[in-house]
Amino acid sequence: MATIAAVIASTHHPFYYRASTSAGEDRPPFADEWVAKITAFRETLTRARPDVLLMVGSDHFHQLWLDNMPQFLVGKAPCYDANWYNEEREFGLPRLFLKGQEDLSAHILRGGLDAGFDLAFSNELRIDHSITCPIITLRPDADLPIVPVYTNIFAPPLPQPSRFVALGRALRSLVESWPSDLRVAVIGTGHLSLELGGPRQFGPHGPDPEFDRKAVDWIASGDIEKALGEVSLDQLWEPGNATHGFMDFMLMMGVAGEGEKADYVDTFDLFHTMEAYFTWYPTPLPATPATLPAAEESK
Amino acid sequence: MSKYLLNKFLYTVDRDPELVERYRSDPRGTVAWWETERANAILNVPSGECSTWLKFDDAEREALVTHDYVKLFELGAHHFLTLTLFIALFERDYAEPLAFQREYARKLSHFSLPYPDVTT
Question: What total number of domains does chain B contain?
């Protein structure tokens, strides 16, 4: 059966690409520190030596629209084009092309449907920055096949937070039952407190630093029970009007497992959002080549 | 009232570079054309098979015609769609990075929780 090489959860910030590639007067003062943090975070994926990436994100009203809106959708295609005109326009994101892993897509769809998740699917999906941001930060060569999973965190009515956690648990189990000898990294991105298009947007910090502090603790300690106890669909409007993206973090807590402490935790208090980076290693890391720094002790 | 149709306008203009420019330079003409020609187009369906019942009410039409993103927020247009399109329309007029986005926030500062419902 397949091995879970790593479970990775992070924020996805579309400004990273431009900040990290800019030079001279255009380079923002926070760019060097951000790049250093991302470079260290990238190493947590590299050392897990993944063969396939199962990637959880959310379409930002690009391909999925209100006339036909799925709650949870799995891509099943041999290839995925990526990034859209308005992401190029606003963030300077490059167009990308990624291979798919259709066998794993099919396994997740069949197994997910049989486990009680009425998953939608797409045979032609152009993915957006919720999935390409972690490609850019964690695997900039974009050389591994992916299976994209989209969640609806944008267009109410939304699924309950508990459903995101349950889907995460199911995805973990489905990867572990995939008849393959490949190493799968599960990568999901969301948000901590975030406001977009509202009065609290683009402040000096995230709109609710207290929520961010609690959320980072829940994720780092794998405290699903506490997160579910404090978070609801109604409550998530309070930290910021785009904070429902936190449910993708909750999905990833479901993948990692109840009470599983993250092996790697980092944060970056950027203007208007707290960036956060987490990695779990559910299985022992492969032997580390001598050229790489020694890996942390894994479980 | 049709939050859905407001969102459909924002969405279909935002994804088309020519329409973004046309809406910036001629908002009244663009909104009138769009409501007549595009409002009832189902996006994934050939042109002969369209809807017949979608139209703006006066407040919605006027908010779009006047580029009034504060009113769009009040009407429950989706905050992400409005922000994305209006950055494309007006960020270029501001010298400092994020200056438009911060002015946008200030103009919405009289809203408190709960914000207008964006559920469609």
Answer: 1
